[in-house]
Amino acid sequence: MQRRTVNRTLRFPDRPHPRRAGENRRWEGVKRAAVRLADVAAQAQVSLATASRVLNSQGGYTGRPALRERVLAAAAELGYEPNFHAQALASATSTTIGLVLHDIRDAYFALMAGAIVRTAEAHGLFVTIVCTYRDPSQELKYVKLLRAQRPRAIIMAGSGFINRSAFEPIETELTRFEETGGVVVSVVGDRGVGHRIVLENESGSRELAHTLADLGHTRFAVATGPARLTTARDRLKGFRLGLQDRGLELPKGSVHHVDMTREGGLRLAELIAAQPERPTCVFAAFDVVAAGLIAGLQQNGVDVPGEVSVAGFGDIPLAAQITPALSTVSVPLELIGQQAVELAMVEDSSIRRSISIDGTVVMRASTAPVPARVAAHDG
Amino acid sequence: MQRRTVNRTLRFPDRPHPRRAGENRRWEGVKRAAVRLADVAAQAQVSLATASRVLNSQGGYTGRPALRERVLAAAAELGYEPNFHAQALASATSTTIGLVLHDIRDAYFALMAGAIVRTAEAHGLFVTIVCTYRDPSQELKYVKLLRAQRPRAIIMAGSGFINRSAFEPIETELTRFEETGGVVVSVVGDRGVGHRIVLENESGSRELAHTLADLGHTRFAVATGPARLTTARDRLKGFRLGLQDRGLELPKGSVHHVDMTREGGLRLAELIAAQPERPTCVFAAFDVVAAGLIAGLQQNGVDVPGEVSVAGFGDIPLAAQITPALSTVSVPLELIGQQAVELAMVEDSSIRRSISIDGTVVMRASTAPVPARVAAHDG
DNA sequence: CTGAAAGCGCTTACAG
DNA sequence: CTGAAAGCGCTTACAG
Predict the structure, then answer these.
(1) Distance CA A240, CA A222 (A)
(2) CB A75 within 7 Å, strand C
(3) Composition bias, kind Basic and acidic residues: at what positions (chains A, B) (predicted)?
(4) Does B367 lie in the same domain as B316?
(5) Is residue B288 a part of any domain in this protein?
(6) Are B210 and B180 in contact (CB under 8 A)?
(7) Which of A190, A281, A330, A352 lies in the 20 to 30 Å Cα band around B122?
(8) Region of A358 on the Ramachandran plot (φ > 0 left; ψ -120 to 50 alpha; else beta)
């Protein structure tokens, strides 16, 4: 198929070579300089100010209609698109939101990011996404770079780090950003800065523990994430509390800190499958891990939920699609994303807002009452 | 938990109220103006130029070490972060890549975006993501807005539209962007503009058709996407050609244009389950649809692959995780994302580059040889 | 090597 | 209502 050729007949501004200093505009090859507001104004035979007013006050221009028409026509003919950076610099406003998250490839973050991008679009804002891969030094680096972009807001998504000292320089950056009029929103993990959307991890996994205990299980194991993440800690803590509420506890050696990936679950499954006295129920603090766990147990000939029940946390789309479908704590990611942007839009930053979001226990096929013989064996 | 209080003891520039005109800097409330290079230069007692040189030529500064130290110290103390917009305006360079895709919540795009964000980061570039939800008018709107950002490159990801007229205004925008030195990369769908990464949809589904035909299937159906998308068209076309290669053809009424979602697959499953003479093999041009199809067939009591084999296209992570695991055409999304950014980095835009990417047929458990009784019934 | 100054492309008080 | 001009915060040729 032949590539289409470019229409080069349009009248483009035929400016002479720019002035001595500041020779920044590229004229190499066929490249032409981008159309400027000045070019539009010249073609429309109006002043810069008028051109700017016509183009910016959409519909609300109160001047002579003739001028308005000329400006609009010139802009359309020249294919004018304002220089965002010049606008931002001159008006000290920004239409960008910076989004800092752990890993966009993770469905959990992809969904949250999707909601944030969509809500932002509805407000006429752009989202610049950076991924930190759960590395505080990367997080610091990107927050700094993002700050240079002078976004309207920076949304920090995902779990925070337990080690406050690692976060201190990041906090300093965010505080500076706030002091200069930026909005900081901390989503789903408290960071001690800015507005917060708090996901009630603890109460979510606590309630899940109740539900599982009420199925008759007494021997539990937990797969949680790296110990340095607050989310991993809180979900574990809530689960432990929930068991305590039922007079149960997690035996020593039953808490496993694994990679927050499918592979983490697969590896743990081998370990559990090989145990002489297996738990009858495993709680994985992250759905991806739970999915790996189920697959791994099955591969090792362990029936889920016949021999071992598995529950997760997050309710990513995958949860409902695997076999058996995963019992989990559902997190309203869409809502969280929306709320995050709404907080980012709040003008008055003198008040820190905090929104609490609850998870919902959703029971599916991956959990079942404790197997009779195990219960008997136990008793 | 008590929120931490902010350290307000740092020495910040104590500038007087700015000049008459251009009063843009906000001083409301506790807000202070952002630290400028001029503030750093003043504190370090050097000129603006020197401060700029020290901060920009990392390590390569050849001037007096004393000056360098003073500038660095001042920048650190004041928490200076350069104004990205001023830099972009003054130097006519940009560190941003614009990414236009259909829907970030779709795993296919999330993976591609992940690879693009990661590769861009390695090159010191930011990615701004916009989603069009497969609406050409949205696409036009966002390409325009993106152009205002003066990014280094715009990556258009996902299928193109068959209707060229809908794409014409978008093409005009992209062409103008290119003419002013921007790089356009069209990923996985030809758009007649810029560099291209071409996914060989046709040959991929053709090869899949061969493989399925060789399992003995003769009665096929196809679930493809909206007729206006080139990807939907090409995958269907390739599959049809592949069947032809084996002397087979798609019966009338066996091609279904469905939503490219799980729901699209679920709905189609009901229809197929109710057919008096079902196909023995269904090809869904998108994995999410295939997954919905399998779940839907199972819900309607149809055994997969015992009664009906199902194959997809894409090999998103979900494919390997459902039961039965999905046979599909694997697309190297990570590689595609990487290559897209590499193309975006190419300085010389006089040559259009085109990279061809092949899919790989991966057979899993969702497809099986045609059931014996069906074969007999057929013969 | 260092600094004074022009320029990047806009917006917006200030005059007329 | 409209325009001339200053200013946003940088970079970078040009002089010294």
Answers:
(1) 9
(2) no
(3) 11-25
(4) yes
(5) yes
(6) no
(7) A190
(8) beta
